[in-house]
Specification:
Elements lengths: L17 E18 L5 E20 L4 E5 L13 H13 L5 E6 L10 H16 L6 H11 L3 H6 L2 E6 L3 E4 L6 E7 L6 H11 L12 H9 L2 H7 L1 E2 L2 H7 L3 H10 L4 E4 L6 E5 L2 H14 L4 E7 L5 E2 L1
Parallel strand pairs: 1-8, 3-4
Antiparallel strand pairs: 1-2, 1-12, 2-4, 2-5, 5-6, 7-10, 7-11, 9-10
Bound molecules: cytidine-5'-monophosphate (C5P).
Cytidine-5'-monophosphate (C5P) binds next to strand 2 and helix 5.
Length: 312
């Protein structure tokens, strides 16, 4: 995307405008261990990028400013706490320059929905600023900065599918043998990720939570593109915590299953719910049934895998 006559500058060290498209993620496995001394949880986190995108546009400005449009934009902070703003500051600091940039976020990914929307904007802003400022950072440098911004940010940069261990930020790419069809049901209002992890800890008080491990049947289903097998292997250890904080999500899950979903689960820390469909036609039918049931405020159909953050 080029705007305001910036076309001729795009390839060099100083484009006028840079837009980056970045995908949402669904966790097809979210294996969570016990709380660590630093408050984080060790994860066996299988990320899959889906074709639901935010776009972040960076252009030169006198000072760091952010604007946002799209569903849920009113809930997005426009101050220094926004992950896109933090990304611009971190990158500028690393290179000893001022983060004087305007970032415009066009949202499609549900806000505070468990689909890494904030993390996606952080990764996109990092890549957009790196391009706008002509810094030419290596992928390894960008990934290191992503990991400092948040546990899910590195995956937003790389996309595709990956196993994340540690906090979820240490990634190994995974092979995906086919296209998968998804429906996402957007709930009314968000859930705070720390609050869901806190509820996980409360529900597991006194329990020795085993170390999480990636599911072999799940990885095999991903590798062969086998949707029914993938559906049978989906799991999310945060789901009981999300349902405890938002019991109405159980009805949304039941509704999607009844409409023909191969499987249904809470996406990440929720409250977005994810439904695996056997094909595109079934996905549309599931989305319709979910919307008609009144158990969600919006639906999206999407496919996976999707490419990571990309300069348009
Ligand atoms: O890394 P990030 O800032 O995205 O994490 C947000 C919150 O999610 C953390 O403050 C923590 O409460 C929780 N979290 C966790 N264990 C992880 C990742 C996140 O407890 N592996």
């Amino acid at each position: 995307v080029r705007e305001g006559g910036a076309a001729e500058a795009a390839g060099g060290g100083g484009a006028d405008t840079v837009t980056v498209r970045v995908p949402a993620k669904v966790n097809i496995q979210l294996g969570v261990g016990g709380a660590r001394p630093d408050g984080y949880h060790d994860l066996a986190n299988v990320f899959l990028a889906v074709s639901l995108y935010d776009r972040v546009t960076a252009r030169p400005a006198d000072t760091l400013t952010i604007t946002c449009e799209g569903p849920g934009a009113a809930q997005v902070p426009l101050d220094g706490t926004n992950l896109a703003a933090r990304a611009a500051k971190l990158l500028a600091e690393r290179h000893g320059i001022a983060p004087d940039v305007h970032l415009h976020i066009a949202k499609e990914i549900p806000v505070a929905g468990g689909m890494a929307g904030g993390s996606a904007d952080g990764a996109a802003a990092l890549l957009a600023c790196d391009t706008l400022w002509g810094l030419g950072s290596s992928r390894a440098e960008l990934l290191e900065l992503c990991a400092r911004l948040g546990s899910d940010v590195p995956f937003s940069l790389v996309g595709g599918a990956a196993l994340g261990v540690g906090r979820g930020e240490r990634l190994t790419p995974l092979e995906v043998g086919g296209e998968f069809h998804w429906v996402f049901a957007v709930a009314d209002g968000g859930l705070s990720t720390p609050a869901v992890y806190g509820e996980f800890d409360r529900l597991n008080e006194g329990v020795r939570v085993p170390a999480p491990k990636a599911s072999e049947p799940l990885l095999a289903a991903l590798r062969t593109g086998d949707a029914p097998a993938l559906g049978a292997a989906l799991s999310n250890d945060l789901q009981p915590a999300a349902l405890s904080l938002r019991p109405s999500l159980a009805t949304t899950l039941t509704t999607g299953r009844a409409a023909g979903a191969l499987a249904a689960l809470v996406s990440g820390s929720g409250p977005t719910t994810a439904f695996l469909a056997s094909d595109a036609v079934s996905a549309v039918a599931i989305a319709r049934a979910l919307l008609a049931s009144g158990t969600c405020v919006a639906t999206h159909t999407a496919t996976s895998p999707a490419a990571g953050a990309t300069v348009l």
